[in-house]
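Re: export button greyed out
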Amino acid sequence: MQQATSVPPFSASQSQRPLVALFDEYAWFQALSTEHQQWVLAASRAEVFEGGAWVARRHALSEYWLGVHEGLLKLAIYNESGRGCTFSGVPPGGWIGEGSVIKHELRKYDVVALQPSLVLMVPTATFQALLAASLPFTQFVIHQLNERMGEFIASIQNHRLLDADARVAQSLAQLLNPALYPNAGLTLTLSQEELGFLTGLSRQRVNQALQALADAALVRVSYNQIHVLDLPRLRQVGLDEL
DNA sequence: GCATTAACCACCG
DNA sequence: CGGTGGTTAATGC
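Workaround output, generated via the alternate export path:
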């Protein structure tokens, strides 16, 4: 894995569209006053990361609040021997890193791009200023933290109570949680190996589970992609027996 | 028995 | 070629 191109000048993004068009897709941005929107646009930037690139490193200063505009990120920890532990995947529409930004802490996990990704980067100072000045922004952050807390609790429950097939189903469903990831589509470009890291299962077991879910017409699997056909039923897999 | 691991190979891009 | 994924045999719980 290599660092992606990272020269952060003050200017707007090097990518195709103007920043305002990117940010305007997010409800929290639309809820800001015009003045507060200008704060964001003046200080933020968009950056493209290659698949496999580090977006942020554990133990580094959290300089940005990160939004996934396109692609897919994951939150994970790697030890010196290269063994990793994946906590969460973050599809388009997801915003991460409030915790470290709010607490002025070093980042507690690595952020890796699993696919070529366009990431919106809001500087820590801007985030703090919005939190202090904007009620809509504060409400959004509380909602976001609350929603993700629920997801992590569900993750622990899934891990301890559900069989492997249901755990895979729940992990996929979590990646499509509209409250956290409003811009995620129904197709995930994600290798079965990565889904194994995400669920704590072997690649082979994930493959079995995906075939079972495909047989039940809940998903369709193709090369490096998983297409969700029936999200409501996928969400329900394994939970009826609890 | 069921799941994981390693190994091998075929296929896709 | 490298990444992905289907399969199998050995091993572990």
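Residues 191-193, 203-204, 207, 223-224 of chain A lie near DNA strand C (CB under 10 Å from a C1'). The button fix ships in the next patch.
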